[in-house]
Design goal:
Strand content: 5-15%
Largest sheet: 5 strands, mixed
Helix content: 55-70%
Order of helices and strands: HHHHHHHHHEHEEHHHEEH
Number of helices: 14
Oligomer: single chain
């Protein structure tokens, strides 16, 4: 079946010239006119000329996409029908072959409209059969009637099939283009989240190295080693993001968040309770932790940050709060001095800009991800001072059970 569909897709639809040779069906009538075997030959000649002109007009305009939906094809078809009935009633015989050609032209003009095409084909077939039966015999009646019906239906079916294939091809191209755009959006969003968090950690730890080097060389070397580890991990994550197989662990992101906050001189309080979560849910919450902590380090000027994860049987809630400057500090992209005197982070915040502000690229991307998964993301002031980021996601009971089983196996 798929091979047949592929062959049809490679074929080109019949053009206007493909229907011109069918006029040779009237060769016997034209010969009879020249031999003088037809009464009133001048009238028959005018009828044949009119039939051919109207037939070509109907076919050419019916297959022209620019003129197909104008009034020309139906009017030409109506004129062709009038001439066909006149020739069939007046001369009969081979002139009844005009009915299959009329049906063919009707299939071209009325294709796609089943409510119109069906009754028209039936009327033409019955009319041709009745006229042939009255002027000829039962055998002529059956042959002409069957040929009239078959020519119109087959023509309409073939043209409709090619048009459907063309629409499917266009739809497939549109779906492919949409898939490419979604993949580009996913990659840019992942890259933004990855590099935004990583560069913030690198900047904060580099400031710690500069601050500790004159006083405690061993501690400074430890921070430098952390910078190297963060850089290596960032390279791994970027490779995984490019291939599309990155699935972050919430526990890993919480550990990284605690390390980044400690390096920035911000007290980190992390609490987690509830049953294990599905990998997809953990990955989404891991992105929220990454983005939220990055914003705290960059823009908050906070001395304390709390991260709380509470998961139940139907929903999981992640809340990140700090005691920093609130919305204003995020809007301006400034970073106040932390409790341990990390004054150099101001330059990092100014360099990074206000991506973490409400409505920024990071939070918008997170909101889109959580919305797709049936969750929500809210952000705003936490009282008079501070900022709160709350993410909620639905939890599938089957996923929770599978996660518990997997946890038991690994334990």
């Amino acid at each position: 079946m798929y091979a047949t569909a592929a062959r049809i897709e490679r074929l080109k639809p019949p053009g206007r010239r493909a229907f011109v040779p069918w006029l040779f069906m009237l060769t016997g009538d034209v010969q009879a006119l020249f031999k003088g075997k037809t009464p009133l030959p001048w009238l028959g000649g005018a009828g044949v000329a009119a039939f051919m002109a109207l037939y070509l007009t109907t076919v050419f305009t019916g297959l022209d996409e620019r003129r197909r939906h104008t009034r020309t094809p139906p009017l030409a078809l109506a004129g062709l029908a009038a001439v066909t009935y006149a020739l069939g009633i007046g001369y009969a015989g081979n002139w009844l072959l005009c009915f299959p050609l009329l049906s063919l032209a009707s299939g071209i003009v009325l294709r796609g409209g089943r409510r119109q095409l069906g009754p028209v084909i039936i009327v033409l077939s019955v009319s041709a059969g009745v006229i042939a039966g009255l002027r000829g015999g039962p055998s002529d009646s059956l042959t002409v009637s069957y040929g009239t019906m078959l020519s119109g239906l087959v023509t309409a079916a073939i043209l409709s099939l090619f048009e459907t294939v063309a629409q499917l091809r266009a739809t497939r191209q549109e779906l492919a283009r949409t898939a490419v755009e979604k993949e580009r959006l996913r990659f840019s969003r992942d890259l933004h989240d990855l590099l935004g968090h990583t560069m913030s950690v690198v900047v904060v730890k580099a400031e710690a190295v500069r601050r500790l080097a004159p006083k405690n060389l061993e501690a400074a070397l430890g921070q430098a080693a952390d910078i190297e580890a963060v850089g290596r991990q960032a390279l791994t994550e970027i490779r995984e993001a490019v291939t599309g197989y990155r699935e972050g662990s919430l526990a890993t992101e919480l550990d990284r968040a605690r390390s980044a906050l400690d390096a920035a001189g911000i007290e980190a309080v992390v609490r987690r309770e509830g049953p294990p979560l599905a990998p997809q849910t953990e990955a989404l919450l891991g992105w929220v932790v990454r983005e939220g902590v990055t914003n705290v380090v960059r823009h908050s000027g906070a001395s304390r940050c709390e991260i709380e994860v509470r998961s139940g049987m139907d929903r999981v809630r992640l809340e990140i709060t700090d005691d920093g400057g609130g919305v204003g500090s995020r809007a301006t992209g400034t970073r106040a001095t932390g409790a341990t005197g990390a004054t150099g982070a101001t330059g990092a915040a100014n360099t990074a800009g206000a991506d973490g502000a409400i409505g920024g690229t990071g939070l918008k991307g997170l909101a889109e991800r959580l919305s797709t998964a049936g969750g929500s993301l809210e952000s705003g002031p936490a009282g008079r001072r501070g900022f709160r980021l709350v993410a909620e996601l639905p939890v599938d009971t089957e996923d929770v059970v599978e996660a518990e089983v997997e946890g038991a196996r690994t334990a």
